[in-house]
């Protein structure tokens, strides 16, 4: 660990416009006063679009409108004890070592280093004893929860909502009691599911952090991310091995999936049935996480999560769900069988057209809350508030989603096309491809390709084209009345 962590200097080398003023308060700097004024307006109920960094403003919107965090909160709430953890012992051990090492480096700068799990629960804290005692007054200590849902905008919680390192300084914190703190955090994510599994954060009272801290965080967690990647490849090897053992005994469509519901391997029947790419790496087995295929089957990720919970490390468990594998046709049964390694479920074998074991019932939905009247996007240093009707379509680039509008391409503040789809479905948006979500009211023309492919012309002036996958074409034609 020591040889992989670069030197850390968290204090600015010289006074800057963003550093503390003579009275030592980060709230006294001119830039911080502007943010404080924006915070007061926003906390009073106004909608603002500028004056605050877009990732911070997006967080404020979540805290105020979605999570309803009390801005007067002055102590982080206790962490819940009823949330089961995934198999992250090795990761937490390595992260704890990094936190302890970093804590020794930041003692001279009156700072605190904290490590959390993927739910924002603090697992450990290190650093200057005086700074730790001050942090404990706000419950910035083990057994407390610092997710955005619980404690508002902060380095740890907000790092779960954005990619890469995040800094939160002074009045950028949603809760007023934390306005004297500067912090920088980064989340460590599961490369299979994309969900956060941990975070590390550096906090400093009444003083700013060096601009080099975010890059230091990125470099320092690289060794932990490499361990997560190594584990993902090991799991894929195990899943593929089980798939090949059973492949000769299955005559119908058969595929192997990772914990996130992405296809690692599939037989010819499954390739034809699902329209999966009939080329490597799926046929030869996609050991690399980036090469795996996400089937465009509504509800499949939820079923995979349910199957993993129900299996609980048992190789004997079997369950099934009926899902619309082909739009416009009756639901197809999919039977799930877990692949287990060291008492942990590392993947699923899925047989299409077979109904065996425990049935999937799904979860009951709570009464729907009032629909949002805007979609939040980010462009340059501004937050963009969009009416759903302004958006022609959404395009996914891995976990980043781009909204194509009359105002140009705008990055959605929400990560993941599935999450954006949940927000926009009620406004007439439909998935037409694994990478595209379309506003059906904005479809101007339809075009057929040489081989019968279907394309949607969203803007005839620029011949803006969105492809339609074969499995979505029949349902789309029915919805458009063509």
From TrEMBL:
PROSITE patterns per the UniProt record, alphabetical: HTH_LYTTR
Gene Ontology molecular function terms on file: DNA binding; phosphorelay response regulator activity
Pfam families: LytTR (PF04397)
Location of the region described as Disordered in the Swiss-Prot/TrEMBL record: 1-21
SMART domains per the UniProt record, alphabetical: LytTR
HTH LytTR-type domain segment(s): 380-482
PANTHER family reported for this sequence: STAGE 0 SPORULATION PROTEIN A HOMOLOG, TRANSCRIPTIONAL REGULATOR-RELATED
Annotated protein name in UniProt: LytTR family transcriptional regulator
Organism: Streptomyces mutabilis
């Amino acid at each position: 660990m020591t040889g992989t962590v670069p030197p850390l200097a968290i204090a600015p080398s010289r006074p800057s416009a963003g550093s503390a003023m003579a009275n030592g308060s980060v709230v006294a700097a001119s830039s911080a006063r502007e943010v404080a004024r924006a915070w007061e307006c926003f906390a009073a109920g106004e909608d603002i679009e500028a004056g605050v960094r877009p990732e911070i403003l997006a967080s404020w919107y979540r805290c105020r409108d979605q999570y309803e965090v009390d801005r007067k909160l002055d102590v982080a709430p206790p962490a819940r004890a009823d949330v089961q953890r995934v198999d992250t012992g090795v990761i937490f051990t390595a992260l704890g070592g990094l936190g302890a090492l970093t804590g020794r480096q930041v003692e001279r700068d009156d700072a605190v280093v904290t490590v959390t799990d993927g739910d924002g629960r603090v697992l450990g804290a290190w650093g200057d004893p005086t700074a730790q005692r001050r942090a404990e007054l706000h419950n910035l200590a083990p057994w407390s929860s610092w997710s955005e849902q619980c404690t508002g905008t902060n380095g740890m919680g907000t790092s779960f909502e954005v990619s890469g390192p995040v800094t939160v300084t002074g009045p950028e914190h949603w809760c007023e009691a934390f306005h004297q703190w500067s912090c920088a955090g980064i989340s460590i994510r599961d490369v299979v599911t994309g969900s956060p599994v941990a975070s590390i954060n550096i906090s400093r009272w009444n003083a700013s952090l060096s601009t080099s801290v975010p890059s230091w965080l990125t470099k320092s967690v690289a060794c932990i991310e490499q361990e997560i990647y190594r584990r993902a490849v090991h799991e894929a090897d195990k899943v593929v091995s089980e798939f090949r053992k059973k492949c000769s005994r299955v005559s119908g469509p058969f595929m192997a999936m990772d914990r996130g519901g992405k296809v690692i391997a599939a037989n010819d029947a499954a390739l034809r049935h699902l329209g999966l790419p009939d080329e490597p790496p799926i046929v030869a087995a996609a050991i690399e996480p980036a090469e795996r295929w996400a089937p465009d089957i509504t509800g499949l990720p939820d079923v995979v999560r349910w199957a993993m919970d129900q299996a609980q490390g048992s190789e004997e468990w079997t369950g099934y769900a009926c899902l619309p594998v082909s739009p416009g046709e009756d639901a197809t049964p999919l039977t799930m069988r877990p692949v287990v390694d060291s008492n942990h479920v590392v993947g699923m074998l899925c047989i299409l057209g077979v109904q065996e074991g425990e049935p999937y019932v799904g979860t009951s939905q709570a009464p729907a809350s009032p629909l949002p009247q805007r979609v939040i996007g980010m462009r340059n240093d501004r937050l963009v508030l969009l009416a759903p009707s302004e958006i022609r379509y959404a395009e996914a680039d891995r976990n980043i989603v781009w909204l194509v509008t009359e105002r140009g391409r705008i990055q959605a503040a929400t990560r993941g096309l599935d999450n954006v789809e949940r927000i926009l479905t009620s406004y007439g948006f439909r998935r037409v491809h694994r990478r595209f979500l379309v506003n059906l009211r904005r479809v101007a023309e339809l075009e057929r390709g040489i081989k019968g492919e279907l394309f949607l012309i969203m803007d005839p002036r620029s011949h803006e084209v969105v492809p339609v996958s074969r499995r979505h074409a029949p349902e789309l034609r029915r919805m458009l009345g063509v």
